[in-house]
Design goal:
By secondary structure, the chain is α/β, with parallel strands linked by helices. The chain has 17 helices and 14 strands. β10 and β11 form a beta hairpin. Keywords: 4Fe-4S, Chaperone, Cytoplasm, Heme, Iron, Iron-sulfur, Metal-binding, S-adenosyl-L-methionine.
Length: 410
C-alpha cells in the first residue's frame, strides 16, 4: 500500500496560507498537478497513492467513485483560487498524473483542465501534460485530449520485453507504447514522452538495449529512465523476500544507466536531469522543472503535495476522505510545514544539482565547498562550469549523484 504521509502542523479548514508564502508570488511561475488516484490493477513495484476498484469497495461509497471524481477535483481548484486570492499569475504548467488518469473519460480530464483555465488562466505557451497507460487510450481518446487543450503526453512503457513487464505486473503488450506515440503524433501532440524502468530482476543488458531501440524507433522527443526501486510493502518486495525473484543490483543499475546515456546521446537526446533526456529544450518537461527549481505549484487530489512560497502541504490520502472534506467545505489538507531559509537552501542543492545547469557554488557552506573541491578532483564535477561558479555533475557524477549531494549539503 502507499507509504505514509509525513507529519506536520494542521492545515486551516479554509486552507489559508501565511502572508509570507504569497509575498513576491508574481515573480515565481505557478503550476498545477492534478492527481487521479485510480488504476485498473496494481503494479507489483508501485508505492504511489493509487487504488483499484477492489481496494475502494466499501471504504468510501459514492465519495470514492471515479465517476464523479472530476467534479470533486474541480472543487479543490476553486479552493485554490480562494486561497491564492488576487494572484495575477496565469498557470505555466498543468500535469495530470496518477494512478492512471486515462481511466477517466477524456472529457473528465478536459473538464479538470478547463477549471484551471477558468479560475486562473493559462499562460500563452502553457505546457499541459497527462500521463497515460498505453492500453487505456485509442486515437479518438487522444484526439479528444488534444482538442481539449493538452499538448504533451507521457506513456508508461517500462520495457519492450514481455518477461520484464510480467515481473513488474504491467498489463500492456509489447509494441503498444510505440504505437501510442504514432497515434499521439497523428492527434497533434508535438511533445511525447516514454517512461522506462531499468534493473528489473531478470532483465539482461540485451533486454535493456532492446527497450531503448524500441523507444528510438517510436520517435518520442523525451525519455525518462528510472532505476527500479523496491519499496517496502509492495508485491515485488514480498516476492524478493520469498526468493521468487532476485534482489536488484546497484552495479547493474549503473551499467544500465551508462547504456541508456550512450544510446540516447547517440540518437540526439541530451540529458537535462539525471533521469531525463530530451531532443531539444522545447522537449523538456517544464512542469518537473518547476519542482526541481523550487517554484510554486498546487497539487490537487488525494495525497497530492503542494508548495507555495516556502510552505509545503499535502492532502489526505484516501479518495473518500478527500471528497468528504471538500463536500463539507473544508480544505483536504492533512498537514503542512513552513520551510526555513536553511531548509530551502538544502533543498535547492538536493534538487538543482541533478539538473544539467547544476547548482551555484555560492549556495554551499565551507564544508560543502571543500567537498565540492574533492568531487571536482575525483572527476564527479565538470571543470569548466566549476571555474564559472557552478557545480555540474559529470557522467560519473550522475552515477553517484546521491552521494555527491550528501557531501555538498554539509
Amino acid at each position: 500500500m502507499p507509504s505514509a504521509l509525513p507529519d506536520g502542523e494542521p492545515v486551516p479548514d479554509d486552507g489559508a496560507l501565511p502572508a509570507s508564502a504569497l509575498a513576491g508570488a508574481a515573480d515565481r511561475p505557478l503550476g498545477f498537478y492534478l492527481h487521479v488516484p485510480y488504476c485498473a490493477t496494481r503494479c507489483g513495484y508501485c508505492d504511489f497513492n493509487t487504488y483499484t476498484a477492489t481496494e475502494l469497495r466499501g471504504t468510501g461509497g459514492v465519495l470514492a467513485s471515479r465517476d464523479n471524481y472530476a467534479e470533486t477535483l474541480v472543487d479543490e481548484v476553486r479552493l485554490a483560487r480562494k486561497v491564492l486570492g488576487d494572484d495575477p499569475r496565469p498557470v505555466r504548467t498543468v500535469f495530470v498524473g496518477g494512478g492512471t488518469p486515462t481511466l477517466l473519460d477524456a472529457g473528465d480530464l478536459v473538464r479538470m483542465l478547463a477549471a484551471v483555465r477558468d479560475e486562473f488562466g493559462l499562460a500563452e505557451d502553457a505546457e499541459v501534460t497527462t500521463e497515460a497507460n498505453p492500453e487505456s487510450v485509442d486515437p479518438a481518446y487522444l484526439e479528444a485530449l488534444r482538442e481539449g487543450g493538452f499538448n504533451r503526453i507521457s506513456f508508461g512503457m517500462q520495457s519492450a520485453r514481455q518477461h520484464v513487464l510480467k515481473v513488474l505486473d504491467r498489463t500492456h503488450t509489447p509494441g503498444r507504447p510505440e504505437a501510442c506515440v504514432a497515434e499521439a503524433r497523428a492527434a497533434g501532440f508535438e511533445h511525447v514522452n516514454l517512461d522506462l524502468i531499468y534493473g528489473t530482476p531478470g532483465e539482461s543488458d540485451d533486454d535493456w538495449r532492446a527497450s531503448l531501440d524500441a523507444v528510438l524507433g517510436a520517435g518520442p522527443d523525451h525519455v525518462s529512465a528510472y532505476a527500479l526501486i523496491v519499496e517496502e510493502g509492495t508485491q515485488l518486495a514480498r516476492r524478493i523476500r520469498r526468493g521468487e525473484v532476485p534482489m536488484t543490483d546497484d552495479d547493474v543499475h549503473a551499467d544500465r544507466y551508462l547504456i541508456a546515456d550512450e544510446v540516447l546521446s547517440g540518437a540526439g537526446f541530451e540529458w537535462y536531469e539525471v533521469s531525463n533526456w530530451a531532443t531539444s529544450s522545447a522537449g523538456r518537461c517544464l512542469h518537473n522543472e518547476l519542482y526541481w527549481r523550487g517554484a510554486d505549484w498546487w497539487g490537487a487530489g488525494p495525497g497530492a503535495h503542494s508548495h507555495v512560497g516556502g510552505v509545503r502541504w499535502w492532502n489526505v490520502k484516501h479518495p473518500g476522505a478527500y471528497a468528504g472534506a471538500l463536500a463539507a467545505g473544508r480544505s483536504p489538507g492533512a498537514g503542512r510545514e513552513v520551510l526555513s531559509e536553511e531548509d530551502r537552501r538544502v533543498e535547492r542543492i538536493l534538487l538543482e544539482l541533478r539538473l544539467r545547469e547544476g547548482v551555484p557554488l555560492s549556495l554551499l557552506r565551507e564544508e560543502g565547498l571543500a567537498a565540492s573541491r574533492r568531487a571536482l578532483s575525483d572527476g564527479l564535477l565538470e571543470e569548466g562550469p566549476y571555474e564559472s561558479g557552478r557545480a555540474v555533475l559529470t557522467l560519473r557524477g550522475r552515477l553517484l549523484a546521491d552521494g555527491v549531494v550528501r557531501d555538498l549539503v554539509d
